[in-house]
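chain below, 281 aa
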Amino acid sequence: MATASGLAALAAGVALLAASSPVEAGPGNLEPDLVTLAINQDDLLIQLEDDRVMFRFTNEIGNRGNGPLEIQPSAESLDCDGDADPANDRDATQRVFADSNGTGLFERGTDGVAAERRFGCMRYHPAHDHWHVLDIATYELRREPPGKTRPRGGAERGPAAPRRIRSRKVGFCLTDARLAFPTPTSQLTSTYPVNPQGVTNCQSVTTQGISSGWADAYAFALPGQALDVTDLPHGRYCLTTRADPTGVISELDEFNNVRRVHLSLQPRRLAVRKLSSPCRT
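prediction:
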């Protein structure tokens, strides 16, 4: 639910977006730092869905930065998804905040908007019945190559080429789901999503985001949180999840967005096990 201060920030940001051109963030600003959080055994599932074997997993993106990740939709569609339908998309703009009082920490109502960066697209997602910021994460499952083998009576063969399955980039409705990195100065109540009065959920007018210290989780039961592994053989695999895969979000550290998980996968037995060893690939 939106707070009074959150609504004030929303109104101020809308006015600024209409009145100014995008500028780049500069020194002294408060920025997010996106990280992909650990995936545990309880976050993994393989099940039969219709005639397909689907590997499901929970993905959680956290913000370790000293500023929020705040995403504002444009007032009207500019057809950022290219389908000529103005009803289902909005341009996405990231707001970066200035450290107005020099504390190094974000204080809503004190720290104003320093920069607005148009970077992508927000689109209505029918299966989730709300709006997503597109291309926030990618998922990749790669089979690790087996070791070298020597067939009977023949020369040594090299390892078989690894089999790989990639998902498309996925979009999220970015919200404060839980306080993941509590500190003495952490905001204890969630801020995002911020909605105008009378609006609920993530809609076309919703300001989405992840507050500093908070995380947004997409559980394995949700549509889109799966990879089709029907035709993959039993073996060891590396699951790679990556936040902001195209590097369009302005953040403090661009090199800590990836999480890799080493797995034993048996699609025919509907079994998956997290391994303690790191991925080899």
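The longest strand covers residues 130-143. Residues 72 and 110 are 19 Å apart (CA to CA).
thats it, cya
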